[in-house]
Amino acid sequence: MKILITGASGNIGLNITEYLLKNHEVVATDINLEPLTKKFLNFNNIIIQKLDITDQESCHHLVNDNFDWVIHLGGIPHPDSSFEELLELNIRGTYNILDSLVGN
């Protein structure tokens, strides 16, 4: 299967990417690629790609590729964040990913 993971540089993203690479092709995306490139340098079934989920056009372009699964982990994980802090990344970013998938 071909799996897209957003927010793949986070703690959950790094762990689930490592697990899924055992049996699947993974496209791991994040705005910060450093943790991904360090951890998965020697894997051949991973594509590491920068993605800003707040950029709707970039989301649509990426999701034009066919994926069997999408695991959306991109966002601010802090429970004490204000609505204003969460609005762009967590809400609009999630909307952009979902909107991109509906179009396919």
UniProtKB/TrEMBL annotation:
Record keywords: Carbohydrate metabolism, NADP
Coiled-coil stretches noted in the UniProt entry, renumbered to this chain: none
NAD-dependent epimerase/dehydratase domain: residues covered: 3-101
Record keyword Isomerase present: no
Gene3D superfamilies: NAD(P)-binding Rossmann-like Domain (3.40.50.720)
InterPro entries per the UniProt record, alphabetical: Epimerase_deHydtase, NAD(P)-bd_dom_sf
One Pfam family here: Epimerase
Domain of life: Bacteria
PANTHER family reported for this sequence: ADP-L-GLYCERO-D-MANNO-HEPTOSE-6-EPIMERASE (PTHR43103:SF3), NUCLEOSIDE-DIPHOSPHATE-SUGAR EPIMERASE (PTHR43103)
Name of the protein in question: NAD(P)-dependent oxidoreductase
Source organism of the structure: Vagococcus hydrophili
Taxonomic placement: Bacteria, Bacillati, Bacillota, Bacilli, Lactobacillales
